[in-house]
Amino acid sequence: MGPAAVLTHSYGKKSGREKDAMARRKLIAGNWKMNGLRADGTALAASVAARLKAAGQARYDMLVCPPFPLVPLVLETVAGSGVSVGAQDCHMQVKGAHTGDTSATLLKDLGCSHVIVGHSERRTDHGETDAIVKAKAEAAVAAGLVVIVCIGETLDERDAGKTLEINRRQLLGSLPDAATASNTVIAYEPVWAIGTGRTATPEQAQEVHAMIRAELVAKLGQETADGMRVLYGGSMNPKNAKELLALPDIDGGLIGGASLKAEDFFAVAEGSPS
Ligand code: PGA
Fold this sequence. Notes:
Elements: H1 3-11, H2 14-23, E1 26-31, H3 38-55, E2 60-65, H4 71-78, E3 84-87, H5 104-110, E4 114-117, H6 120-125, H7 130-142, E5 146-151, H8 155-159, H9 163-174, E6 184-188, H10 202-220, H11 222-227, E7 229-233, H12 241-245, E8 252-255, H13 262-270
Parallel strand pairs: 1-2, 1-8, 2-3, 3-4, 4-5, 5-6, 6-7, 7-8
Helix pairs in contact: 1-10, 3-4, 3-13, 7-9, 9-10
Bound molecules: 2-phosphoglycolic acid.
């Protein structure tokens, strides 16, 4: 199916699609990466929690994913605020001789609700293949966590016209077998947009998001696919968030740099359509 067909497919049933998009509450997720010490991590978490509380009945869900050692502190700091806490990776095994790794079971035990797997920095820095990412996603789901499965093409792959092919392969190769709308979130993050200040245009993002939705329909059925959240990530900031979050198949953001300032993180969230 070519890009045009995918878009046509996606835009086919307008009123139903609008309803589905409304049913998918936006998820605004902060990926702190390897940033923050105890003091600034706590301060950032406290500020995010205070802002969410002040916002009252927010129309979006909010998640922060600090580095592993800060997870307990952040959980304690945001307790009762409605802010969820996740981790940035997990191991595929429940326990054992895996020096330096952390199990999804421990993350769940600590109080995490989510875990990110397959981020492009993990795929590049740690040689994570789709099979590894899928095994991690299975472990996360088995532990009772919501898994955020990241996919995305490099600039070379985009320039070679392989964007949809690469993202389709990563999606189908990384999705856990037990995926449901409530235990799995997909994050499309073009590698060339991560940390570069260069964001995908709304058309570029929507084209990939529509393909993802169509593949989810084919693999998991209409109902599951309609309920599953697909986030965009890559230099999302208060200036570009509103336009991206208004697109029919973008159900939130995975935000790196802009999530390190509570004010910017909130401005992104507040850009969600009401
Ligand atoms: P960025 O990172 O917002 O700094 O581009 C996003 C991510 O890598 O999740």
